[in-house]
Design brief:
Number of domains: 2
Strand content: under 5%
Radius of gyration: 21 Å
Shape: globular
Largest sheet: none
Number of strands: 0
Oligomer: single chain
Helix content: 55-70%
Order of helices and strands: HHHHHHHHH
Amino acid sequence: MPPRSTAGGSGVAGSPDDGGDGRATRWVDHRESRRAEFVRIARRTVHHHGPDVSMDEIAAAAGTSKSIVYRYFGDKIGLQIAVAEAVVLQIRGALEGVLRVAPTPRDGLRAMVAVYLEMIESSPNVYAFVTRDGSVESGGPLGHFLDSVTALVAAPFARGLTDDDGTALRLDVGDASARPHLRDSGHAALAEVWAAGAVGFVRGAGEWW
């Protein structure tokens, strides 16, 4: 979030001077609370009315004007990214839980597929809203969403690639050449590659489904 002005006033664009009484802190809390409220309303509106819902419709559901919503998110892409962050936060616990107990990276991949598809099934409209209108490279909603999910998957993958004493383990994918790659290039880089590939595959399969 960009730095806020310390100029006085109560408009959304600025924040009041602290004055030693916590007003600035209360302002930040209010702004974050208001953003979260808009995100919840946007998710509910998209869920019921589809991914093509307009900003006017979202603002109407929130009982305010589109210009006020824009003050908190900049534009529709900003709102899409905020909704994507909320979706990722919601599935984080489930995803980390199943990957933590998976005995092998392959089992973890199966569990990740189930969690990801359950997320799509729970609200296809919200999933479409946060993954449309932008390429993976653009830094838009789709790229932001996939980067966040990949990061969730990569860390448990990295843990699954080493045993308790830090020795590299062979990936359970029938490729014995994985071990030297682990030793030479590092677990984190390889885990990120596997995670990105897995998320990309599941995303494609899920959208086809």
